């Protein structure tokens, strides 16, 4: 099964719902459903519920639309240098790979919380 055929799941350990609509992404590469993202990540200071990382930077937590419109996709990267677009694409692929194949090295706080 290819990476793109898999669905992202909420990384909140008691949820694990398939994500749709909007989701919350953290700088530590975790993703949460709107309910748990808006609730758990709105605390100050914010702490990732999956790995306990401090999330204090301006872009450490972002809310994203999982199925953006064609117009949004056409405009969001317009004007960026090709190497920047490729770097963004590479990071997005790495995020997906991490989500669908989480590390299994016995860390209790990795992805599954």
UniProtKB/TrEMBL annotation:
- GO cellular component terms? synaptonemal complex
Question: What Pfam families is this protein classified in?
Answer: zf-RING_5
**Keywords, in A-Z order:** Metal-binding, Zinc, Zinc-finger
**Limits of the RING-type domain:** 10-52
Single GO molecular function: ubiquitin protein ligase activity
GO terms, biological process = reciprocal meiotic recombination
Task: Locate the coiled-coil region(s) and give their ranges.
Answer: none
PANTHER family in UniProt: E3 UBIQUITIN-PROTEIN LIGASE CCNB1IP1
Identification of the protein by name: RING-type domain-containing protein
Q: What is the lineage of its organism?
A: Eukaryota, Metazoa, Chordata, Craniata, Vertebrata
């Amino acid at each position: 099964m290819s990476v793109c055929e898999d669905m992202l799941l909420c990384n909140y350990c008691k949820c694990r719902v398939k994500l749709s609509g909007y989701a919350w992404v953290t700088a530590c590469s975790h993703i949460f459903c709107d309910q748990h993202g808006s609730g758990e990540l709105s605390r100050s200071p914010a702490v990732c519920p999956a790995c306990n990382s401090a999330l204090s930077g301006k872009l450490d937590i972002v809310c994203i639309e999982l199925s953006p419109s064609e117009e949004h996709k056409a405009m969001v990267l317009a004007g960026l240098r090709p190497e920047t677009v490729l770097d963004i694409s590479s990071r997005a692929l790495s995020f997906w790979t991490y989500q669908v194949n989480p590390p299994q090295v016995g860390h209790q706080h990795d992805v599954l919380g």
